[in-house]
């Protein structure tokens, strides 16, 4: 089975997308007062993962998570285990969206747009579920005191993180689906660039 290699160009692109995701994090993204969020930075992270593969996507997610913890963590940093779980780990597994990178590239190469959009959705689903699973666990064990009176902490964490995941998936799937139809080259590393990178 073919694997996407980690190249210098891929790492640079991943770092740029992580920085873009961090910049987008400063746009208000909280919905209501219960902790539900639509994280705008999901888009560049899933795009680079689906373009470059899960390895680069995971590295980019780790970078974003560390930046977010350092620059915006503040009172959300409760203890070392929670910090690791909700920042480098939760953001890093977002890169698993890149598991569909090769079949997505092949579908676009064969001009099978419907199949390509399906892969984009599947990749987004994998990444967002993986990310919000860790937020869900952290919500149960570290944020349970914020649950409204009468709420079971498991159901409250599932409610907050489940809605956040669904909103993020819809946002990513719609935007990337449109991009795949009008600019499919965004999801494919050109042969010229690939040859240059592999020569170094």
TrEMBL record:
Key words of the record: Membrane, Transmembrane, Transmembrane helix
GO terms for cellular component: plasma membrane
InterPro entries, per the entry: Thia_Transptr_ThiT
Transmembrane segments: 7-25, 87-104, 116-143, 163-188
Keyword hit for Membrane: yes
Pfam families named among the record's database cross-references: Thia_YuaJ (PF09515)
Coiled-coil intervals: none
Molecular-function annotations in GO: thiamine transmembrane transporter activity
Entry annotated with the keyword Membrane: yes
Identification of the protein by name: Proton-coupled thiamine transporter
Lineage of the species this protein comes from: Bacteria, Bacillati, Bacillota, Bacilli, Lactobacillales
């Amino acid at each position: 089975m073919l694997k996407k290699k980690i190249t210098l160009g891929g790492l640079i692109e991943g770092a740029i997308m992580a920085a873009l995701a961090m910049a987008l994090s400063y746009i208000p993204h909280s919905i209501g007062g219960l902790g539900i969020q639509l994280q705008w930075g999901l888009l560049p992270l899933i795009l680079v993962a689906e373009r470059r593969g899960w390895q680069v996507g995971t590295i980019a997610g780790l970078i974003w998570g560390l930046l977010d913890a350092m620059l915006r963590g503040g009172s959300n940093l409760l203890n070392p285990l929670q910090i690791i779980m909700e920042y480098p780990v939760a953001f890093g597994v977002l890169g698993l969206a890149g598991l569909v990178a090769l079949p997505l590239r092949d579908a676009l190469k064969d001009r099978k747009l419907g199949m390509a959009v399906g892969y984009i959705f599947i990749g987004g689903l994998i990444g967002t579920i993986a990310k919000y699973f860790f937020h869900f666990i952290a919500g149960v064990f570290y944020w349970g005191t914020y649950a409204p009176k009468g709420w079971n902490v498991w159901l409250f964490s599932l409610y907050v993180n489940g809605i956040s995941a669904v909103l993020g998936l819809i946002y990513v799937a719609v935007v990337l689906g449109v991009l795949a139809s009008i600019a499919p080259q965004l999801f494919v590393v050109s042969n010229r660039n690939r040859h240059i990178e592999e020569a170094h």
